[in-house]
Amino acid sequence: MLDRARELDAADPLSGYRDRFDLPDGVIYLDGNSLGALPRATSARMQQVIREEWGEGLIRSWNDADWISAARRVGGKIAPLIGAGPREVVACDSTSVNLFKLIAAALDMRSGRKVILSEPGNFPTDLYMIAGLERQGLAERRLAERDKLIGALDDDVALLLLTQVHYKSGAMHDMAGLTSAAHGAGALVLWDLSHSGGAMPVDLNACHADFAVGCGYKYLNGGPGAPAYAFVAERHHAALHQPLTGWFGHAAPFEFSDDYAPAPGIDRLQCGTSPILGLAALEVGVELIAEIGVDRLFGKSRALSEFFLECLVEQDLKLELVSPQDSAERGSQLSFRHPEAYAICQALIARGVIGDFRDPDILRLGFAPAYLRFEDMAEAARHLAEVLRTGEWERPEFRERAAVT
Amino acid sequence: MLDRARELDAADPLSGYRDRFDLPDGVIYLDGNSLGALPRATSARMQQVIREEWGEGLIRSWNDADWISAARRVGGKIAPLIGAGPREVVACDSTSVNLFKLIAAALDMRSGRKVILSEPGNFPTDLYMIAGLERQGLAERRLAERDKLIGALDDDVALLLLTQVHYKSGAMHDMAGLTSAAHGAGALVLWDLSHSGGAMPVDLNACHADFAVGCGYKYLNGGPGAPAYAFVAERHHAALHQPLTGWFGHAAPFEFSDDYAPAPGIDRLQCGTSPILGLAALEVGVELIAEIGVDRLFGKSRALSEFFLECLVEQDLKLELVSPQDSAERGSQLSFRHPEAYAICQALIARGVIGDFRDPDILRLGFAPAYLRFEDMAEAARHLAEVLRTGEWERPEFRERAAVT
């Protein structure tokens, strides 16, 4: 398969983009869905921000280097990747904090309704962010399995909160259909794009989505703990009240008045001072993904994952696939169930094949298409087959759990 | 005065620390209370985090570079600067977001009480963060002038929320006295240390403070929009419920369970994934301030501001000082009222003397003691005298307002 992989790489129009990333030697990185790789341009840009903008420019850079617009500018560059208008997205805070703002905003817009509907097994922070509002007496969490979500929509539901591509299985929701069903029941919809934004075409406005959030450090390659982003459809801007009413979301922050007045438009989603270093790194990652284009990226990620499955067949490996078989119905990942998934993942990492484990029994392999080669697929499949055939995962060092799994 | 200034500099035991910062030539930087200067060590450390930890280590760095403990580790290094125990401080989110967490936590702990008491003219975001909770029906804002605060404490007050050193005037509150008065009325106290932490000794535990927040990008020199910090006295940890219940505040975040359970201790104040780049820069700044020591820093900042006032006398300049006359009662700044403060500030900036303007009529000069010289005081006073005497501030370009003032 290695020969065929090399032919596919030679014919791949995106193959040149691998060199735009700084990847370590001897590593096949199948975890870009957890932390994206380092764009080559990031390091120099960060030196410029640190030495010139901060060191030389000091406080003047809020104007001279336009730090003051950074949240809006980076949001505006993310917008076309997710089918949003340029003034509908802002880059700020963490995904979790942005979830809170928008869950609370939905409760404010649908007064009388308290239920936030989601699915069990959604990414934990999406579910957890409801807990604080529940304790405040403002929200009530309702979970329904994915095939029962539409049936669980009633006139108590203020918000349907779902992750478009499931972090564990990679299964993709029908964004247009579920949004329409929720609207039919009078509810709003908040889409978490953490596992889809930057990896595949997302069309929030074509689906009439109300709200969305997403992660800056996965497919957008913004660096560890990068700022996240938030989307609010323009039709909701004027009526939107989110509770994190900080000075960067104020209509006139430098008037220093005692009373809060929300900024017009998407800026009212901002809260504290923009994290300039984090936004600068994120901007580099976003620009690179925008240059490649999400349509081409998704095309390649489908081809990569299909080829990987062929390689497993070639290796005569039978693993339980928990991701959808059809590559059009899943994100840029393949997840397999195995009772020893943790130890297998560690044995692969020791061989330089970095995937990840998700409790309790999932081996998750992400295929970030911007920097992976078909050759990586063939090699990863060979390593996986060898780990399983030799039983090297049984070594005690591979079974000991680290702090972060 | 320049000769005397140079003698004072020669005798100053902190003078060597100026070289630990990267300051631009030809600038006298009197705005470290708005954005701290760049420590010389930051740039190399950031290259290491970006190239080695992110680029080479990739996802493995959550364990191998101990990213997972960054929020707690940096918090632990801030703790001794503010009189807190090592497990009472965490570095995360923005000051605004941390204010929200702790205002809401106080309302949760004092159920039946809804009033958040503060003073008019407190830093805007402190006041604004009450607004979101008011709209949710959870809080009620009450403002009282500083000499009427104690009288405004009654059994409706859940929390007294004050900034220890006023951002505009530099006036310092009596932390011990006000904390005790609030406790006497059954209320909790939240201190914003943004203009005191890292510039002067703060002793939260000696004052029996309940909560505190503070800024990472002023006196801690963490870079533009650096992560902030939050303090909760250990006696409150077990009963603390803050509403931003994200996965990084979970007791077992990598078990990926559907239900939120707060981490034991200060970690429950975390919300989303730690901003690793921002925390790395902040850590460098904190370590440098800790090395110099807040007692020595405050001693020098008092000497600097007293010397600056002497220089003004020498220049025969009579300006209305709105900061306290006694340097023991003010933070590391001097604020002057002048109807043309904005234009004067701009004229000074054009001469390389960077202070700042605070609406509507305050010229604020900060004396960050870690990198300023007595010579800078003499020169700044000379420039200020020349600007006022020549009337050069009257030029139209100095009166045009920028986006960020």
TrEMBL record, chains A, B:
Top EC group: hydrolase
Domain of life: Bacteria
Catalytic activity: 3-hydroxy-L-kynurenine + H2O = 3-hydroxyanthranilate + L-alanine + H(+); L-kynurenine + H2O = anthranilate + L-alanine + H(+)
NCBIfam families listed in its UniProt record: kynureninase
Entry EC no(s): 3.7.1.3
Alphabetized SUPFAM superfamilies for the sequence: PLP-dependent transferases
The UniProt record lists the keyword Isomerase: no
Organism for this UniProt entry: Altererythrobacter arenosus
Name of protein: Kynureninase
Keyword Hydrolase attributed: yes
Cofactor: pyridoxal 5'-phosphate
Pathway annotation: Cofactor biosynthesis; NAD(+) biosynthesis; quinolinate from L-kynurenine: step 2/3; Amino-acid degradation; L-kynurenine degradation; L-alanine and anthranilate from L-kynurenine: step 1/1
